[in-house]
């Protein structure tokens, strides 16, 4: 053994290995993830309600690309690479805004309709051999579901039904269950954007397990006492954790929240459901609202998380004080992200060179690790070979 390194530990059957530490900190691995995961899978870009009128746009970083999502004059959403076809200048530099009738490149004034078609360029009429239709903006695949515009950069996007809707089905048992929340009709009660100094995989791993709930989430386990039950807590993450007997609502003090959504059945009343949609979405369902997280990984050790609290339109319109409702999961977010940052700081420690371990209630994280490895190294045939890679 080399001086300063730690010996490998023989794992018992109860423990599984994690990814090695540098997988959370290596810029080269992150670049591969950008290309082979975020640019290949469906990515939740923006809530459709954030772009209510023609010309409203948002730019979103998807992998290594800036994507422009814009509503056209017919009311349809479109997604395009945010790059002029002339000399490659970025078209829209702001994260959000409103365009009048077109997208105009600030460099040479090539101008595109809100549907992406090239409609004008200086002196273009003097070049009759140029096929204007061939130089429109490069389109990006777009699907709308759950009130979200999902985009995919792949030339041949994977099945939306299998990868996105399928993730919900796998968690709830039936994708139609989520329809009861009518998320596309809910309105924004609160949005908080977090800058997390941690790798995106650490955030997903944290969200996927509840082994930590009793340790760092005192407010959450007061409302959901089943989450304090050690290894058994993981069962309730997917099957619906019941509110405590004296809990009135999903609020920071357990007091009453907003009225239950009319379409949520009694079967799902007084329960909390958590869903992960790879690679960057968390959906949290409670009787009176929905908490939707969208992650935007920007570096190996930095992730932007946009979290929306969504309520029935009449609740938002009434001006009801939602502070206690929002505060519960805001604290959960802060506690989780602090834990992720604590892990991030140790990813390059020699103690974590070969990674750590997963206890039984975390074993499903191993399936997530295998999914990541399959995307990055699809031709890898030797089980665990990539886990042995050392910087």
Q: CATH topology of the largest domain, anyone? A: Naphthalene 1,2-dioxygenase Alpha Subunit, Chain A, domain 1
Number of helices: 9
Major sheet summary line: 7 strands, antiparallel
Distance between the termini: 16 Å
Number of strands: 18
Q: Helicity level, as a percent range?
A: 10-25%
CATH arch. level architecture of the largest domain: Alpha-Beta Complex
Task: Estimate the global geometry from the Cα principal axes.
Answer: globular
| Overall SS class | alpha+beta
Radius of gyration in whole Å, from Cα?
Answer: 23 Å
Our estimate of the beta-strand percent is 25-35%
Q: How are the strands ordered across the major sheet?
A: 2-11-10-5-4-3-6
| Tally of structural domains | 2
SSE order, as H and E? Answer: EHEEEEEEEEEEHEHHHHEEEEEHHEH
Mean pLDDT: 92
Assembly status: single chain
Low-confidence stretches: 1-5, 381-391
